[in-house]
Design goal:
Molecular chaperone. Has ATPase activity. It comes from Pseudomonas farris. It is found in: Cytoplasm. The protein is an alpha+beta fold. The protein folds into four domains: 233 residues, Heat Shock Protein 90, CATH 3.30.565; 143 residues, 2-Layer Sandwich (Ribosomal Protein S5, domain 2), CATH 3.30.230; 90 residues, Rossmann fold; 132 residues, Heat shock protein 90, C-terminal domain (Four Helix Bundle (Hemerythrin (Met), subunit A)), CATH 1.20.120. It is built from 22 helices and 22 strands. It has a nine-stranded mixed sheet with strand order 1-6-5-4-7-3-2-8-9, with helices on one face. The protein has a five-stranded mixed sheet with strand order 10-11-14-12-13, with helices on both faces. Strands 15-17-16-19-18 form a five-stranded mixed sheet. Helix 1 packs across helix 5, helix 9 crosses helix 10 and helix 9 packs parallel to helix 12. The chain is elongated. It starts with a strand and ends with a helix.
């Protein structure tokens, strides 16, 4: 054994301690995944060496045959996994094996509940990698040396998976990493060649480099022990290079788990080879669940990039637009240079062509899912809907296609579930309806009960109910769908077009003319609070509402700007009243200017509350209301 120097004991990061404890208990029912995770890490380490060696061939140190070896010792109850990949320095070992450097780690930890079943899903989304070793081992030793460092700069990391780990400098002749798992007393089933072989075939057959197990052969004369030969037990070819007809669903699913570091099967996938002007292969996956850091824009995202089957880059984000950042997979190009960089990717016209084609392929995959697997698409929308809503603003070329994938709540439903597609909405539109009507607001209850919907209920016209914070911003980029324009029912002077009869229109004009005097009195009473006062065509039951000017910001956008500290443009609402409502009739007959003013402001404030807005002067509203109550009680 090599002499250890500079030995020290260090504590795990708090998050690592939490993760280890929960993972060991939550994932215990699927303990064999430890080998899949360690092999996946080893494969990544080999990929990184292969890439770095393109510029620095000396890193291969004369050993260009890259592989992973898995061995076991029944007597010692150990399983050993060794790769000749990039390896780790002492600093790397402390960083990678003692801390979790993922953005949003603390936020992720808050969501862990202690419920083993629920937490196993979360942990799977987070990715456990190396720490899965402690599911079956009560002690783990790691011996590693980074390629390019001297043999004397090897590192030995050791831990029992509790609060701390030891690290020391050791002599290590070969580059790469060797992990020794000291199995728990109840886990010696894994110190078995047949068991290990089956796990590798099940989870890691797709790994594109040899995974070797020892094969015992007859003893050589004069030697005590039989010689050890190594045999490759996996297919050792890149899965995406094989014809689709030769790849089983189970293989696609396991490859996804390797690429995405996810524990669950993907929702859907698309495997495609392009030949002609451009030559590349893509294998794209839609995850079943959203990753915990989906809304952290700085989080790593993108596809694994290979050039002529040589790994070049993790998280190559130039191949898909940001609103599709949840898509996982690989792209393997024959047209790019092996020394391609992120900067080159951002400027290369080949990338623009590939990005356009890959984006359409993802959208086609989602269209197919929505058409053929509606229940699965509901699950997709719950997880990724808000991200998809970023699409129309970012991807003008595919705006119509994205719009067809959007889902909304509507007045046809009663639970606020976002399941209505625009094509479905138009398919059941009223005869003569040439608009898509929608209403935005803070909550489903608020928009569902909004006075703005009264005329639509009366006429049986469906209205989309939009309550996500992003919705008003989204609709500023969606002008029409399938030739039908969108109309915000709370904005401007509502015109139902052919849905109003000529008799209705004529009657409305006559009523408006008869109430011109009341309009002028209200303008005087409300003064600078309003931009305009008019008779409403929207109301059937409520006395008054506030409409938004055609060019003004709605409540959602105002609140977003205020929350981000930006200046909100000045705007005033339009006060609309229902001339047939008893309160308006009483108001019209009120002789006292003071009482008329108080009642007008009360109606204005109530309309603001019904719209989900806050009152600018709540004390004045309470004072006027109390005054009115006192008068009524006398």
């Amino acid at each position: 054994m090599s002499v250890e120097t500079q030995k020290e004991t260090l504590g795990f990061q708090t998050e690592v301690k939490q993760l280890l404890h929960l993972m060991i208990h939550s994932l215990y029912s699927n303990k064999e995944i430890f080998l899949r995770e360690l092999i996946s890490n080893a494969s990544d380490a080999v990929d990184k060496l292969r890439f770095e060696a393109l510029a620095k061939p000396e890193l291969l140190e004369g050993g260009a045959e890259l592989k992973i070896r898995v061995s076991f010792d029944k007597d010692a109850k150990t399983v050993t996994l060794e790769d000749n990949g990039i390896g780790m320095s002492r600093e790397d070992a402390v960083t990678h094996l003692g801390t979790i450097a993922k953005s949003g780690t603390a936020d992720f930890m808050k969501h862990l509940s202690g419920d083993q079943k629920k937490d196993s899903h979360l942990i799977g989304q987070f990715g456990v990698g190396f720490y899965s070793a402690f599911i079956v081992a009560d002690k783990v030793d790691v011996f590693s040396r980074r390629a390019g460092l001297a043999a004397s700069e090897g590192v030995h990391w050791s831990s029992k998976g509790e609060g701390e780990f030891e690290i020391a400098t050791v002599e290590k002749a070969d580059r790469g990493t060797r992990i020794v798992l000291h199995l728990k007393s109840a886990e010696d089933e894994f110190a078995d060649g047949w068991r290990l072989r089956n796990i590798i075939k099940k989870y890691s057959d797709h790994i594109a480099l040899p995974i070797e197990l020892p094969k015992e052969v007859a003893a050589v004369e004069g030697e005590d022990k039989p010689a050890i030969e190594w045999e490759t037990v996996n297919r050792a070819s890149a899965l995406w290079t094989r014809p689709r007809t030769e790849v089983k669903d189970e293989e696609y699913q396991e490859f996804y788990k390797h690429v995405a570091h996810d524990f669950e099967n993907p929702l859907s996938w698309s495997h495609n080879k392009v030949e002609g002007k451009l030559e590349y292969t893509s294998l794209l996956y839609v995850p079943t669940r959203a990753p915990f850091d989906l809304y952290q824009r700085e989080a790593p995202k993108g596809l694994k990039l290979y050039v002529q089957r040589v790994f070049v880059m993790d998280q190559a984000e130039s191949f898909l637009p940001l609103y599709l950042r949840f898509i996982k997979g690989v792209v393997d190009s024959n047209d790019l240079s092996l020394n391609v960089s992120r900067e080159i990717l951002q400027k290369d016209p080949i990338i623009d062509s590939m990005k356009s084609a890959l984006t359409k392929r993802v959208l086609d995959m989602l269209e197919k899912l929505a058409k053929n697997e509606s229940e699965q698409y509901k699950g997709f929308w719950k997880n990724f809907g808000q991200v998809m809503k970023e699409g129309p603003a970012e991807d003008f070329a595919n705006k119509e296609k994205i719009a067809g994938l959007l889902r909304f709540a509507s007045t046809q439903g009663d639970d606020g579930e976002q399941v209505v597609g625009l094509a479905d909405y138009l398919a059941r539109a009223k005869e003569g309806q040439d608009k898509i009507y929608y209403l935005t607001g803070e909550t489903y209850a608020q928009v569902k009960n909004s006075p703005h919907l009264e005329v639509f209920r009366k006429k049986g016209i469906e209205v989309l109910l939009l309550t996500d914070r992003i919705d008003e911003w989204l609709m500023s980029y969606l002008n029409d769908f399938d030739g039908k324009s969108f109309v915000d029912v709370a904005r401007g002077d509502l015109d139902l077009g052919n849905l109003d009869s000529e008799e209705d229109k004529k009657a409305a004009e006559e009523v408006a003319k008869s109430k011109e005097g009341l309009v002028e009195r209200l303008k005087t009473a409300l003064g600078d609070s309003v931009a305009e006062v008019r008779v409403s065509h929207r109301l059937t039951d409520s006395p008054a509402i506030l409409a938004i000017g055609e060019q003004d910001l709605g409540l959602q956008m105002r609140q977003i700007l205020e929350a981000s500290g930006q200046k909100v443009p000045d705007s005033k609402p339009i006060f609309e009243f229902n001339p047939a409502h008893p309160l308006i009739e009483k108001l019209d007959n009120e002789q006292s200017d003071e009482r008329f003013g108080d009642l007008s402001h009360i109606l204005f404030d109530q309309a603001a509350l019904a719209a989900g807005d806050s009152l600018k002067d709540p004390a004045a509203y309470v004072r006027r209301l109390n005054k009115l109550l006192v008068e009524l009680s006398v």
